[in-house]
Amino acid sequence: MSLRHRCAATTVAVFLIGSLGACTESESEPNEESPSLPVESSIASTSPSADSEPAVESPQLGVPWTAGGLEFTVSEPEGVPSAERWEGTIDTELYPDEVIFPILVTNTTDEAIEVAGSIGFDTFSGTHPGEYLSCESDVLPPSRLQPGRSAEWPECFAVENADDIVFTIYPPDDGPAIDYFIGSPRVDGPSEAPSNYGDDPQQAYVLMVQDAGEPLVHEYPDFAPVLDDNEGIVTAGEEMCTQIDEGMSLDAIYLETYDYLEIPAGADDNMLLANFIWDMILAAPETLCPEHQDVVDEWEASAH
Fold this sequence. Notes:
Helices cover about 30% and strands about 20% of the residues. Helix 1 (about 5-10) crosses helix 7 (about 270-285), helix 3 crosses helix 5 and helix 3 packs antiparallel against helix 7. Strands 1, 2, 3, 4, 8 and 10 form a six-stranded antiparallel β-sheet that branches. The chain starts with a helix and ends with a helix. The chain contains eight helices and twelve strands. The protein is of the alpha+beta class. A hairpin with a 7-residue loop joins strand 11 and strand 12 (about 180).
């Protein structure tokens, strides 16, 4: 499968950090941006709360989707060029487009729910994770959402391709993540690794890992030695194959890999690192131990 779909589809229970943009609720005070909590490793199919309409099998733009006691409605994103506005703040060659997602959230429970610090957002576009942007809006997130009340706000990201995005919401209380596929189809079955990585399994694995790690090195140059260590990359990949053979869970393999890598200061809570480790794990069966590809297919199916 392509690196884009490996990274974008994952919802494993790792240290994924999403940030809130801006929101409002009539009876709540504004709160500062806060990271999201870790999320579970699979998505449970949840139907929208509408009696007169058939259940929706997957999240869709403009259609309510309930998770973690909250009903989320994500409208069609507005795309604008980001190069001029964010020049000097982000790599505008890597992220030429800015997208603004209108978010509507309703508390469907009979108790107040924490919003700021409990909901996370993330994007993946083309071949890279999106870059979170401040929406520069005076509409701020409420700290709590009262029963039956709604809040609406924008979430903004710089992306590689505004027409090819996976937008992910991480609900509160470790609820299952919600993926919205924009311009790219959901991938439920296995696909082939890119042919330009060559036929040698070890070389292909090294090249795939180095390609996946490029965005991380761009932000954290101290991580470059990890990607330059071809032997270390292969050793890590072979260890992952052994762990899969021993029946270790994806979460456990992630944590083992996290401990194995030398993480640069500040990168340990970065979405780029989580995506990179996910890539490392899934690239191993594609190259070094293809006999375990069925296990990866099961993991990916659980992530939808």
